[in-house]
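Journal club side-thread
Mid-discussion, someone asked how the predicted structure for our own chain would compare to the paper's figures. Pasting it here so we can look after the session.
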Amino acid sequence: MRFLITILATTAASSSLSAQQQPAPNSNPNQIVVTAPDLGAMTEGPQVKGVISARNGDKMKVTTADGNSLIIAITDSTRITANGGLFGSNRNKLAADSLLNGLPVTVKTLQPVDGQPGGNLVASQINFRNSDLKTASMIRNATNQRFEEQTAATEALRGRMADIDKYNIKSTTNVHFDTGKTELSAQDKAELCTTASSAQATENALLLVVGYTDATGSDDFNQELSEKRANRVINYLQQNCGWKPYRMLTPTGMAKADPLASNDTPEGKAQNRRVAVNILVSKSVDGL
């Protein structure tokens, strides 16, 4: 079943509209058409805990601590709460606007009864802390707001990497990974928090996190793997080292680009399987 969501005012009655009842696609620029989930054919799904990394209408992408991402649909029945305070079961504008990029959330979900995969999770309840919402509000314009913008944002960051002369790189910490893996070692975790503490002591410092791979595997596999590694490092820095999201430049994965060593030897490949955490200070601030 398809129904019409009016961005400015969504009503429960809209879920009953058929495709024939919808107006012409361009009749109202404030309206979008999405596919309605059949909640009657769903059962309790997994609880998802992570950070909102993208929003697109009534869908959000949540990145978990292991670097994986899930797309979860939001409906009029989704309950959105903060510190136990209910914003409203009808997901009013205040509640919808509260789901910002960078916001840590705990999501109770529903999934199809048949358990088939494919991004069919629906949020039954979303919970977050008011203190986290205040932080996320500060980075509203510093992260990707829509799924379709992510590729452009990645390309923009590649350009920023090439134009890095606008920043002074105060230091770079590389953490390394086993082949095809995203897990952080105990030593890596300690080094990340040491790096965060050093950056915290540097006025106006930002962190730029970039993931890399060796040359093993396909280009598509390495792109996804490098992004997962970068996300794993970012989540650890924010959740365990106290680094504020608004002091983080948009991360990216660079796959096998910019190797530190030759990919022709095991030793070289080991150096290339890394995430680089760069402490940056704008030259205008740094006085250089």
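Post-session note: Residues 147-286 form a domain with the 60s Ribosomal Protein L30; Chain: A; fold (CATH 3.30.1330.60).
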